[in-house]
# Entry
Amino acid sequence: MKTKEYLINKQHIVYQVLKNSFKNKKTSHAYIISGSKGSPILDTAIFLAQSLVCLNKDENNLACEECINCQKIKNNAYVDYKLIEGVDLKNDVTLAIQDDFNKSSVENEDIKIYIINLIEKAPVASLNKLLKFIEEPNSNIVAIFTSNSVDSILQTIVSRCQTITLKEFMVSDLIDYLVNNNVSYEDAWLISKISNNAEKNLDLVNDVTFNVVKNQLANSLKHLGNKNDYFIVDFLIEGMKNLTENSSIELFLDMLEVCLLEAIIKQEDKEHKSVIFDEQISKISEKYQHIDHMIDDITKAKIDLLSNANKNLVFDKLLINLLRRWEPWIMKIQM
# Structure
């Protein structure tokens, strides 16, 4: 499905905002495209960039997604266009963008565009260097930022951008879509708790990586629930072997976070039955008092990994911290 078709059918308000802006020729010099994790914020940002340089725009001045310029943007081959991951936005990259974009345009459209994907993951020092560039933009430069958490972006940047927010879909709708496409209810529930993009979720659960990560999660929950030191040994031997890519590590941490949230619910409601890994989650809910602190530990580990910290050291610290949270809270209440 093309991005424009998706926006028309699934994100009508976003489509109307873009349509009115381009049709009336009132585009901004800086945008933030925001949405929950898994939502097609980058696809929308790329469509916005295409609409700025398209050679065959529709009646609303929006991109055709097929012309040579649209294809160049899609393939990151348009000379006056840069796509940078927020986590890679180091000081030298920021300075290179500023230097390059202060030069004359190469392409005929005389407009320069840069996208920073997940800007909240960028180092603050680099964003501060970028700020002046945003505050005093050249008339032919457009900045597009994507984010899963606008609140995590420097407010001095947010205040200078037009923010466009993608609608979040209900988990039940995402689950129904996956189940109707032959995904088990358990898998559909788990991935829908993590990501808000039905089509990408379907691709993910059908990828071998999903089952590898889920199997590792099952082992980790078992050892964690037994308050077993083998939790650390198993993960450092098997887990690090199975989770070699950053994407699989992030997926594992997201899944673990979902299960710990379920454990908190079980502490409040003894009758609650988890859709997946119920036995293991029940043990964790009984043996760990400060599960909210465990979730904080996971969040800190994600931040450390984004800052390119040593992966083994990050997980050593995380695994030890998780085990340290053990405390039979039911016994403590009874005492």
Q: What stands out?
A: The first helix runs from residue 3 to 10.
